[in-house]
Amino acid sequence: MTHELKTGGDRGYLRIATEEAFATQAQVDLLIKLVKDGKADRGITSLWGFYGLNADERAMKTQARLLDLGEGRIADMDATGIDIAILSLTSPGVQAYVDVEDARRVCAESNDILAEAIARYPTRYYGLTAVAPQDPEWSAQEIRRGAELGFRGVMINSHTHGEYLDNPKFDPIFRALADTDQPLYIHPTTPPDSMIGPMVEAGLDGAIFGFGVETGLHLLRLMTSGIFDRYPSLQIIGGHGCEALPYWLYRLNFMHQAGVRSKRYECLKPLKHDLYHYMRTNMIGTTSGLASEPSIKLAIEMMGEDRVMYAMDYPYEYVADEVRTHDLLDIPADTKKKLMQTNAERVFKL
User: What is the CATH number of the domain that holds 245?
Assistant: First the structure.
């Protein structure tokens, strides 16, 4: 241990953690039922078969922490010097549910529960609206209701039954985001059955690899579909170093332009800007689960110091020394304050 972790800004900044998960009992119960009934896809069966049905100590502790929006969570924040948590419904949200009515009901209930928790701890919690992309029009209405509840953005857990947000059917969601001027956080979920096979065979389907690969694909699909040309002010957040896209950016941009010029794919149309522009204007990355100085510095260099935010990834990666890693980053003090505090304040309008 190099230094004590305290709240209150003793190191020159507050620590605002921007990807912090919670669950509701109704959400968990229905996910477990899907797994037990054999109605979940392979990814959800793998993920929630572990966190929901396994007696493993880590799984049980994680589920208990997910369900705690009270003093236990606050104590964990205090113990690691986290001043503010941006809370969102844990993956896969309600997007794995087969019954759309179940998805809408659990989603609305979860948003109400989150709003109540924020009211109890107004200086410690802010929230992101959960939606049910199975019903895009209903989700648009829930985004607007979330804004009225005081939520500061929207969380979507990547694909919904293998469908991605670049499909025009989801445009009502983007229209609602534009109307309410709120950012969209695209969080990982397990890969769909169409791509998960080799991953689950090797034990690589979850946070170790599959999450980032699938969600990076989703973010890239949105960029190359022209979403930011249609909605120039839209801000999309990607966790875990923006799911490795900053590292790949040169090659992604080069090959995207080559693909457009060749007219090889009907879906690849010319964009108003290159991918560098969108990554530095419309995308925001967080450091959730990626407490690595070289990785964080690379994200800041590629995206800009105004476009990377701290996150812990609680409760899945609750490690005090990872907070210290951020505190000890060899970057200018004003850049560190942006990373830990003021970028989040700007993005979420805190």
Answer: 3.20.20.140
